[in-house]
Each structure stands twice: as C-alpha cells, then as structure tokens.
Amino acid sequence: MSVWDARADVAQLSIDRFFGAGERRMVHTTYPPRLREPFHYWWLAHLVDVRLDAFARTGASAWAGNARRVARSIRNRNHGSLFNDYFDDMLWYALALDRMHTLTGDERAGENARALWEHCVQHGWNDTHGASMAWRKQQLDYKNTPANGPFVILSARLGARGDARALEYAGRGFEWLTTRMRGADGMVLDGVNRAGDGRVDGWRFTYNQGVYVGAATAVFEATGDRAPLGRALETASAAIAQLTAGGVFVGEDDGGDAGLFRGIFYRYLGGLLPHMGADAAAPLADFVRGSTDQLWAHGLRDGRLLAGDDWREPATGRIALSTQLSAVMALEVRAALERSELTPRESAAR
Fold first, then answer.
1. Please, are residues 112 and 106 in contact by the beta-carbon 8 Å criterion?
2. Could you tell me which residues come within 8 angstroms of residue 284 by beta carbon, excluding any fewer than 6 positions away?
3. In the prediction, which pLDDT does 1 show?
4. Do 331 and 8 contact (CB within 8 A), yes or no?
5. Mean pLDDT of 166-174
6. Within a 10 A sphere around the Cβ of 131, how many other Cβ atoms?
7. Quick one: which of 88, 98, 84 has its CA closest to 159?
C-alpha cells in the first residue's frame, strides 16, 4: 500500500470517527453534532460516491456494503421515495447509484438510477431559456449549472452504454452549458432567471467548474469527440488560476452546501487527467499534489483527518460533513494520482 493509499484510508475512517451516527442515520451533518440536524439528501448521495471510491481503490467489500447502507438510508429518510423536488439532488443520487451498479453489479441500483434519470427528464427538461434541465419542480423556468452538469454526466454515461436517447440529451445539455453558462475565459457561471428577471448569476463556484469539466469528459468518453476536452482543460486551468489562494481553494465554504463544491471539482479533475497530454496534465497534477499536501499537513487531529475551509491551517469550530467529504474526495484523487491511474494515456497526446 502506498503512502497516499494509506492516507486515503485514514480520511475515509475519519468520517466515521468524527461524523458517525449509527446504522439508521449513518452520519451526523456536523462535528460536533447539533441536537437537531436536517436531512441532506444530496450530501448523502456524495457519501455513497465517496464510499465507492474506497471500494474501487481497495476492493474491500465492506466499503461497498457501507455505500449500499447509505443509499438505503437516503431512501428511508426520504419517506421511502427516490424522488424529491430538486433535480440536482436527484441527479447526484442517480450518479452514485449508477456507479454502484457499474462497480458492484447491483442491478437494483442501476434500475433506480435509470428511474431517477427518467423522472428528471419528464419533470425537469424544458425549452425555457434554451433546452436544458430546470433546478427544481417549483421553478421550472430557472436553469442552472448545478442541475445541468450532473444531468449531462449521467446522460453521457448512459449513452456510452448504448442508450442513444440519453446520449442525445447529453449533447444538448452540454451545448446549453457551453453556450449559455460558459464565459470567454473558460469560467462557468451559475444560472439564469433565478429571480424571474432573465438575468444570469455570475457566481464563479468551484462546483460549476467541476461539473462542467465532468460533463465535457463524459461527453468525450461517450462520443470520442475531443473538442470538449479542450474546453474542460481551459475551465479547469481558469478555476485554479482564479479561485485559489496559496495553492488551495478558499472562501466558498459556508458550513453548508458550499462545503461540497471543491470536492466536486477534484473528483472531475481526476476524471479529466488521464485524457490530457503530459504537458497539459502536469500543472493540474501539481495543483492536486500541492493542495493535498497542505490538507494533510494541517488537517490531522489525533491521528485522523478533520478538514476546515482553508487547508492551509487546522480546522476550527463546527465542521460540516460537506466540508469533510470534499477533503476525502481530494485525497482519493491524490491516491489515484500516485498509483499512476491518472497518468495521461498514450492516445491523449495525439
């Protein structure tokens, strides 16, 4: 086992150490926990994916079992239903379930992922402000990157397995993201018509850059068209240049949903790296190494990892599960990088 594989194990076990909450709830949403805690459907969807990271890395069935229990917990706590009112939430859950199906052969997980995708298409896809996915059922004329990014990723993955209809949606969704949300500098904005006035929200979150990188990579993997990879590289590079201080992302984490944003960027940056030529990949890999070095140097607490917003210093105050999950995602990418799993493939140089 490499040093960074061992550190990724520590990070995974640290979720249980600091946030563990028993079999029904699985995790608390903060450390230290609050007396009353909300149910964060989409945070738990990312916890499923994080546990699948550990399973993919180690092959240990316990991690797959943990992912299944978290997935069941989401549905149980959601009153037995797969669905909620937010299309981005459901798409994150679907992505985690689809990956569970791919990695473990769990047919029910695959069926549920497909059911979520169909539900989103039926209830969320419309032509307002361009053919694209709405953010939530109560606001079908508000379109944003957080919903369309994961929709394109999932659609492209289904398309890569032979679903022509899903692949068509992936292409249309990616075109909308590129033409409506992506600026000339490569940075991806947040959404349009949130307040019903047709305006574009100019927020430049790591989340939006990450899902665009993931969408572009997924479209390439499904179609073989390399043009999206060039756009993904521009977006990833712009995000690192514009959103970091001292080699790490700072200033987004509000102790809530934003804690997950940087982790999403790391996950999909890791997916992009193998498709880049060596020269293009080098600065991206350097960023992963430098930022996770700082996370590890400052995040240890009693032999476990506890991450704050600024990885250049130890965590203080109450820490959100979302923040911790981002750190674990980053360390799993670092471990994969050091195993040479993210080394540019020979075809990427052409």
1. no
2. 236, 237, 240, 269, 272, 273, 276
3. 80
4. yes
5. 98
6. 14
7. 98
